[in-house]
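Hey, I'm writing a tutorial for new members on how sequence and structure tokens pair up, and I'd like a real worked example in the thread rather than a made-up one. If someone can provide the structure for the chain below, I'll link this post from the tutorial.
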Amino acid sequence: MAYSAEPKSSVEHTETIVTTPTDQKKSLDLSTRDLNAKLANPLHGKTQEQLVEDAHAFAKQYELQDISDELAKGALVAQDPLAFDSLSQLTDQDKAVLRREITHKWDQPKELYLLVILCSVAAAVQGMDETVTNGANLFWPQQLGIPQGVGTPQQQKHNSLILGLVNSAPYLCCAVLGCWVTDPLNRYFGRRGTIFITATLSALTCFWQGVTNSWPHLFAARFVLGLGIGPKSTTVPIYAAECSPAAIRGALVMMWQMWTAFGIMFGYVADLALFHVPDHGNIHGLNWRLMLASAGVPALIVMSQVWFCPESPRWLMGKGRYKDAYHSLLRLRGNSLKAARDLYYIHVLLEAEQEIAAKRGNRFLELFTIPRNRRASLACFIVMFMQQFCGVNVIAYYSSNVFAQSGFSNIQAILAGWGFGALNFLFAIPAVYTIDTFGRRNLLLTTFPLMSVFLLMTGFSFFIPQSNRSARIGVVATGIYLYAMVYSPGEGPVPFTYSAEAFPLYIRNIGMSFATATTWLFNFVVSLTFPLFLDTFTPQGAFGWYAAWNVIGFFLILFFVPETKALSLEELDQVFSVPTRQHAAYQLREVPIFFKRHVLRMKDVQRQPKLYAHEYEDEKAPSSTMA
């Protein structure tokens, strides 16, 4: 567990104007920084004697006297996890266990890896939910009375709108209902219960989709599917974070995005495998019905597996079930000292959160009324909004339609779509490394212009005459594949990672709900409108539209989204305490400097003063080390 930032005196929130890095630390929103410090390490400043006394009192209060001594040692370790070698209360065996936790961070109990598998399959379910409809779109509109590309122009627009409405139904539900029932579901049923309920809904509604007989019926089934997608997409990463050791927590939470990409690819595999299934008896359209139902199979695996995993210790403690929480941690940590350490630390953290909650107002309103939080909310809104308006899901949901219009046969269109899914997954794997080395902001600023170019390339390829079919198909496929390769390490993993770290700790859960609802809302908008765009704007105009949004996204990132990579809580407060206007003006001045230094290769280009105080401290660190 990493702890940082020392407590500061609490003052009222005020809007600050930061003029220099020296003044910046003085003018930070100290109340927010104080809250971060308290939540980052509630044990800071306590003596060892006081910690031991508090741990024994804690054991007595919650009838944990049989592990009272372990809790005392755990409290001492939790205060400073890297200083355990200096604690005389620990045995050599205790220190060896804690040392191995650092040197062999992936040496974990099998129960933790069972949980990792559960979360990975749950993410894959979500990816399949998104893309099995891709192949089905080639068949069900014709059978259910909304054929595409036939009839009068008015009929074509009407049918395209209905196609978009049915495909976007789950994301409409996520935005208006699904994400907002996450909190009550988790409160009453726990993390495992919520995952079980949502996986059950996903499985049942996937099978329901396969027996529909009209487009309103299919719309209803897919809308209910959103009740499975929305809460699951929020709960599974939280469950992974609450059960994982600190050393591998970030990597496990990042795997949600990577295995969602795997599910997207596997959705295309299901479409290909079921494409040639013939009708049987009185069942018409058995192939597309099985495609839509196929995503229910991994959901059944999640349902059956979830009860074999431990419940979240944090949720159990929130319900007063401390003995159950300790046994859960024993399964997840494999050692009584580590379990006692984490049990006591979660306890003091929950107490600090409850104390803060009693003193604060409406936390949702504070996302927008407190300047530091408002800037974080704006940045998260931009990256989540652009994750949809960069155009990725028009390919994920409608690539088969696009490839069919370019000249592919139906089976070739689905196979080409599988290529997109495979690249999306393969290029998501390096993102686990690049997101913490290259940086969130740099990844976005690099990939947005490239995504715009490749979308234009895809759209303009439709100007190639149908008579030159092979060239047209080749350019369309190349444009979409190159787009997938630059999307996956950029706008793929960055939005959820950025949103998870940008908010202060005391409103982080509320902030993540806001960010998640944002992405699902605009997912619905994109899914709804793209078929109409294809008919009205033609493929050239539709892809040009999203190419233009990628250009807009580049400037939104440039002006309003600061870097958050590898920053402590205090440094994040510094970053988001810089007024928006000042940040945008600084970045605008950086553009010609960057061009002269890195494009024209000019030397002796005068640089601007640093924008943040911690940047000066980072520059001093190497020299002080050498000295």
